[in-house]
Amino acid sequence: MNMIPTEVRALKPADYKSAVKPVWCPGCGDHSVLVAFQRAMAELALPPEQVAVVSGIGCSSRIPSYTSCYGFHGVHGRALAVASGLKVARPDLTVVVASGDGDGFSIGGNHFLHACRRNLDLTYIVMDNRIYGMTKGQPSPTTESDWDTAIAPGGTGLSPFHPLVIALASGANFIARGFTGDVGGCAKLIVDAVRTPGFSFVQILSPCVTFRSDQQKAWKSLVREAIVPETDDPARAARRLMTDDGFNLGVLYRGKRLPYQPRPSANLTPSHFESEFAI
Ligand code: SF4
Ligand code: MG
To answer: Name one GO biological process term (predicted).
Structure first.
């Protein structure tokens, strides 16, 4: 065991690994997100005890137990609610929230809107495989309308949710997209997201090799570095995201909103809490 305190030794990606072995399917994109997260934390030189990873439910939401940081594997769709409470109570912590497209955009869709609007200093990573992986492959909010399966014969016929457009319209301060085929690129985006104040949303295209075996190969040929440089102008970003095909990678928007800081109420003093909640 390394007994040198974290504040005096250089941190390596391995310092963010826990002893728990991931149970993800071999080849699942989520393995790469875990590696990217560990690289990003080492690059940021954040001691594991100063980082909290909060998740909901789903394959991707298993990630907190695979890191040595504080973690909370929570309730379906409620990761952002838990993380918001944590960040308000402990603004000194770096809070990273992990989710999937089902957990984050369907069950947790309402929390997503309001987390963007509130703009607390959180980093929200959504591992998007356009499917509910843990529950055996149902279409999710980001599934293509014509994805033909036994569960949805002929496709759902529903337009997919565009999370980046929704994030921009709701007030997120940083919007980016990565692909697990480029772990270094994902790590860079996570570093950038953590460093940018306010609510940072990073969608990571993370193939499900078990229920969507078509994805890995197809996405590899479709993704590209976004050629238009990032913008801080919401109107320009909106025009660009409305025509985005879902495969432009990189930072697509970085705003200038200051993060939300709860103001102490004149009516709620520490002594109020002591008397209210004294046991
Ligand atoms: Fe990954 Fe899909 Fe397996 Fe879940 S079911 S661990 S998303 S490959
Ligand atoms: Mg999913």
So the answer is: cellular respiration
> Looking at the predicted structure, is the pLDDT value of residue 124 above 90?
yes
CB 68 within 8 A of CB 76: no
The ligand whose atoms approach the alpha carbon of 129 most closely is 2
Residue of the nearest CA to atom 1 in ligand 1?
28
Domain containing 37 equals 23-277
| Cβ–ligand 1 contact at 138 (below 6 Å) | no
Question: Is the distance from CB of 201 to CB of 171 less than 8 angstroms?
Answer: no
Domain count, the chain: 1
Is residue 13 one of the residues assigned to a domain? no
Is 1 a domain residue? no
Give domain status of residue 191, yes or no. yes
Torsion (CA) 225, 229, 233, 236 in degrees, nearest 10 = -70
**Residue nearest ligand 1's atom 3 by CA:** 25
Per-residue pLDDT tens for 250-267?
Answer: 999 999 999 997 776 666
Tell me, what's the ipTM?
Answer: 0.98
Q: Which ligand is nearest to the CA of 207?
A: 1
Does 15 map to a domain?
no
Alpha-carbon distances, residue 198 vs 4, 78, 126, 206, 208 (angstroms): 33, 19, 17, 24, 30
How close is the Cα of 196 to the center of ligand 1, in Å?
30
| Residue 60 CA, closest ligand 1 atom number | 7
With a 6 Å cutoff on the Cβ, whether 22 touches ligand 1 is no
